[in-house]
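Box 3.1 — From sequence to structure: Response regulator transcription factor
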Amino acid sequence: MRLLLVEDDINLQSNLKLALEKSGYSVDVANDGEEGLFQATEYEYDAAIIDVGLPKVDGISVIKAIRAQDISYPVLILTARDNWQDKVSGLDAGADDYLTKPFHNEELLARLNALIRRAAGKASPIITNGVLSINTTSFEVKVDGELISLSSSEYRLLEYLMLNQNQVKSKSELTEHIYDQDFDLDSNVIEVFIRRLRKKLDPLGQFNFIETHRGAGYRLRALDL
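Predicted structure (token representation):
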């Protein structure tokens, strides 16, 4: 999952970026509202974390501008402890949830995880597809009850496909949602990870979880339909 973090407190920004990356997210950062708005509208994200009190353009204005362009990914706002007006204004502007500073990183991760799941129509942290299941909280992957060991990159790719079951996703879209903006979009790394996932999830070719659509991309079949 690829996130946008807009926070002008460099220490907090660095701390959050590290925590998010340790949890398997790819994170782009912006130091002010102007830069954040540019990135929010220029690149594709699965969610954004936006501080209300930003220089150049405040967080509320950033959110309003994002929603005005029909960009619908979840937005979590960060607000000061006693400023309830910011919370109301943020939600009215189009934010999906808020978190009051100071906060524990574990709470931010839990709220963010829930927002991304809800945006994909998944209420539970455990997402299933026939005999295949992933736990977006513990990052466990199981096939027919057996635990499968994946690298962090393999897991991120599988999670994105699981959140978008039955949808064909191009290599460039998969790359954009899994890696940050500095990643080489022409790389064949997605093909490599798809091959690894197929080998680990379905070594005998019983289930054909991931289909290749030539010239279009890959689709994780919705076996529960």
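Summary of the box: The chain has two domains: 2-119, 126-220.
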